[in-house]
Please model this.
Amino acid sequence: MIKLILSDMDGTLLPFGAATVSQRTHEAVLAAQQAGIHFGPASGRDRAALLPAFYGDQRCVSTGIMANGKQAFLNGELILRRSLPQDAMMRLGEALLPFEGSFALANVISENPFSPTNSYALGVAAGDKAARTNIAGARQSIAPVDELPADGAVISAGIYVDTHFNAADELRLIAQEACPELAFPQPAPFFLDVIERGWTKASALPALLDAMGVTPEEVAYFGDSENDLTMLEAVPDSYAVANATPEAAAAAHHHIGACEDDAVAQFIEDLLA
Model:
């Protein structure tokens, strides 16, 4: 019996380029919760960044694994938190400086896990356009910085790749050389996640399951890309959407329709029926 549904966001629950999940998906999530099934995003985004995708509905982000396993929540309570080393992030920014248009984005959070994050562009020359973040799909213009604030924690980060000038594989090699303590899975053609090497979404799963008192066999997981591989392998009832990468499709135990067709919502509706 499924007691917890966890889903990746971009490319799985949220079509690339969309600002919010569909109304159908939103309603399916609430219906699952009303039926006593926990739902949570399992995303590279942190909690504050996920909230707008669910129309600001706190219920949809009260449980989940976020920031690639650096945040875990159950019923609104923070049960796990990690952060990325700031010195490594600064090294990453320096390594990306020669690459036109591409940069790292560090999302810094205060001690309050429910507060909004402040975003900082690393690897952008001071005279360059801060608005390059808009080219990469960010929803605000973010100024480049030479130093991250000492009183905050880097809860999530990524590399926006300007594919007109740079190849993601090349930038990944440069980043790995500069920051061997970090890893850079690719959830989208234009984006590389920045995670602590050896720590993934699946690393946070035991803490969430222990807090809930459920087993991996009582979890359904949905994903589409490289940063989902460990979860797709760890959860017996895992599903790749039809638009998943070949690696994600191979790692999943089951397969469903495409993200654009609300396949996860369809699964929830069928489960409740």
